[in-house]
Amino acid sequence: MRLRPLAVALLALLLFVPLSVAAAPPADTLVIGLHVTLATRWLDPGETEALITPFMMLYAIHDALTKPMPGKLITPSLAESWSMSKDGLAYDFVIRKGAKFHNGDPVTAEDVKFTFDRYKGASAKLLKDRVKEVQLVAPNHVRFVLKEPWPDFMAFYGTSATGAAWIVPKKYIEKVGEEGFKKAPVGAGPYKVVSVSPGNELRLEAFADYWRKKPAVKHLVMRSIPDEATRAVAVKTGEVDLAYLFGGPVAQDLKRSPGITIKAPLLYGMYWLDFLDQWDPKSPWHDKRVRLAASLAIDRNAINEAEMLGLGKTTGAFVPPEFDFALKVEPPRYDPRRAKQLLAEAGYPNGFDAGDLTPLPPYTSLAEAIGNFLGEIGIRASVRNMERATFLSNWHDKKLKGLLIGATGAAGNAAARLEPFMTKGGLYAYGSRPDIDDLFQRQANELDQKKREALLHQIQKIVTDEVLVAPIFQQGFVCAIGPRVAESTLGMIQGFPYVGPAEDAKLK
């Protein structure tokens, strides 16, 4: 079976079309080739999705009270310290002296409260339902008071599970308005925005007064190059210094190219096949046997080799093994014979038409591979491609039908990973089960760690046993690095796929 037919054709293009040497970027500029079309909403933490993609921009432009950094999941950043009260009802953050926004305004407790009030991204309802009030204790001291103890507060608020703690400037937004902020965002991160070309390019300049350190590279450019072959050529010719996401023959060719280094950090990114129509009793996917058949039809090892040079990890788990309260689940075996038997038992001996198979862009080849595997047992699906921002909007607006290949690399713990996808009201949940919703509420109020773990393991076991999704792999994010780069920072933050911390990137 050909897992990556498009990639083979693209490789031929790479090998046989002469490459002209592009003008190298200026000596003080690091140019990154993006695998997706740049969506301007990713520049605003207030609209952060339950995915890692927006943090590609946020780690450069903005900063959070706490965030994942090298060596630690929850690291004090704009907050020099944070603490929880003994009763678990209050969380205090002391803002770092000298932390300021790009326009020179200091970061204050008022900005923190304003940021939380305007936040409408992933898990916004959950956070606001749990927080009773945000108190301004002092200009540099803010307190979150909860309605009841909630041990998951920092997993949702203080990591990349959400963008709620990535602080925006109150006075500036009130002055220019929401639309003005979207056109010219001001943050407190290591780089300030110079220009934005929606869908195409983001140009940034080092913010010399960033509290942590002055960035080593003066200018940072993020350029959208969604086509894999074009992106590979851009690295080879020196048009870009670093580019994200390659697979199969294209990655192999880059690995053999002089002066190019391949890195593939293992991410928190879990990929799965989602049966969006399973909540409709009339759909074939409503039958667990059909969902299990689809899962058994997928050769995960072959996909790992084809998509990630074997550098990812096949999995049967929805939650990354590095997360607190993760349940270890072995990958389902590849068993197309048993899959066909299950389809026959469910009343589909000749298979059925499954409609669209829509992958998270740009994972078209992954969708084609899974579509081929499903086709071998009689499940006929048509791959439908979308631009990423459109896909994400349609996903959380519940407009997609049929099958979906989902993924997220956001940090947190098992509860933070499950909430957007498996619970009632979750941003990407097309349906939910009462038993999961009940267990999720119980674990959220449980202060005993072992009891919480048991409850979260029960949820993950239901997800596995009922085949609510078919997990595929934990991603090895294959990137190509050109000869001008001294430090890419790829892999410095555990589970993070992009350049980060951006201020630590260096050119030779």
Largest β-sheet summary? 7 strands, mixed
Q: Find the count of extended strands (DSSP E, 2+ residues).
A: 21
Q: Would you tell me which CATH topology of the largest domain applies?
A: Dipeptide-binding Protein, domain 3
Mean pLDDT metric: 95
Terminal Cα span: 43 Å
Tally the helices.
Answer: 16
In percent terms, what proportion of residues is strand? 15-25%
Radius of gyration, whole Å: 23 Å
- Which secondary-structure class do the elements indicate? alpha+beta
Helix content: 25-40%
The CATH H-level superfamily of the largest domain is: Dipeptide-binding Protein, Domain 3
Q: What would you call the shape?
A: globular
The strands making up the biggest β-sheet line up spatially as 8-9-10-1-11-19-12
Report the top-level CATH class of the largest domain: Alpha Beta
Stretches where pLDDT falls below 50 for ≥5 residues?
A: none
